[in-house]
């Protein structure tokens, strides 16, 4: 699928993987809407790429519906959705202060998993109602962001790992449901990517983490995530799969 002239929505588009994905899509000619809880950050990225930036709590049905409607009015029906919005707080199931508060777990699931599903359902409705784009009768593609933690979560990552495993789990049934209408659904599972979350850690911690990546011996670059998104968009045979982007890393 050639994204030139097509409407694309990127959640978490105000920073990190989402911002870099928005830049790659815009550079290829897509009409990009960047959604972020931080509306100012989304608007800053949108101004840079000539797109639309909107504040949006992806876990809210009302906010998601309003954002997708605004994107549709500005750019037409969504043809590319990239779910990058997410949070990654760490907490033990039972710590020094006792059991993990249930609302801590609920919030991670709400933002990461329910937020991804919320935009999936709304963007897919746009795609299914639109006309085919090419001889394959393709109508659109949805790419969500899981994590290496979905299968190799570390101590303290139970909520995060569960949310990302859920994103992996909904990919295949969604792809099967939409296949007959030409909408593809995939997931990218990044390892250690050099986003502000990692780069704000002490240098000693960064060096230790980067040293665990077999090859290349470094953090991934957000641009490498963006380039993978573009390849998925362009390669129609890619469907119903999770692609690891981790330099062969396997969490201990």
Keywords:
globular; two-stranded antiparallel ribbon; 252 residues; 17% strand; alpha/beta; seven-stranded parallel beta sheet; Rossmann fold; single chain
Explain this structure.
The protein has a single domain (7-192, 222-244), classed as NAD(P)-binding Rossmann-like Domain (Rossmann fold), CATH 3.40.50.720. The protein starts with 6 loop residues before the first strand and ends in a 7-residue tail after the last strand. It has nine helices and nine strands. The protein has helices at residues 16-27, 39-49, 61-75, 102-129, 149-152, 158-178, 196-199, 203-210, 222-234, and strands spanning 7-11, 31-36, 52-55, 78-83, 94-95, 98-99, 140-145, 183-190, 242-245. Strand 2 (31-36), helix 2 and strand 3 form a beta-alpha-beta unit. Helix content is 46%, strand content 17%. By secondary structure, it is an alpha/beta fold. The strands form two sheets. Strands 3-2-1-4-7-8-9 form a seven-stranded parallel beta sheet, sandwiched between helices. A two-stranded antiparallel sheet has the order 5-6. Keywords: Oxidoreductase. This is SDR family NAD(P)-dependent oxidoreductase.
């Amino acid at each position: 699928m050639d994204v030139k002239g097509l409407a694309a929505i990127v959640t978490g588009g105000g920073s990190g993987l989402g911002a870099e994905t928005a830049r790659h899509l815009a550079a290829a000619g897509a009409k990009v809407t960047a959604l972020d809880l931080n509306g100012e950050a989304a608007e800053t990225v949108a101004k840079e790429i000539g797109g639309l930036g909107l504040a949006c709590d992806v876990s809210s049905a009302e906010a998601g519906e309003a954002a997708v409607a605004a994107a549709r009015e500005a750019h037409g029906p969504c043809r590319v959705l990239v779910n990058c919005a997410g949070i990654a707080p760490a907490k033990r199931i039972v710590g020094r202060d006792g059991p993990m508060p249930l609302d801590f777990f609920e919030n991670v699931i709400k933002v990461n998993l329910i937020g991804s599903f919320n935009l999936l359902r709304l963007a897919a409705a746009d795609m299914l109602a639109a006309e085919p784009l090419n001889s394959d009768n393709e109508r659109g593609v949805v790419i969500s962001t899981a994590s290496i933690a979905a299968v190799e979560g570390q101590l303290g990552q139970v909520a995060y790992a569960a949310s990302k495993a859920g994103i992996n789990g909904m990919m295949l049934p969604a792809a099967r449901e939409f296949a007959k209408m030409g909408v593809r659904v995939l997931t990218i599972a990044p390892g250690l990517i050099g986003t502000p979350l990692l780069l704000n850690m002490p240098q000693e911690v960064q060096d230790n983490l980067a040293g665990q990546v077999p090859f290349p011996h470094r953090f991934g670059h957000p641009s490498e995530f963006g380039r993978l998104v573009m390849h998925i968009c362009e390669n129609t045979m890619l469907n119903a799969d999770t692609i690891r982007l981790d330099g062969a890393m396997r969490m201990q």
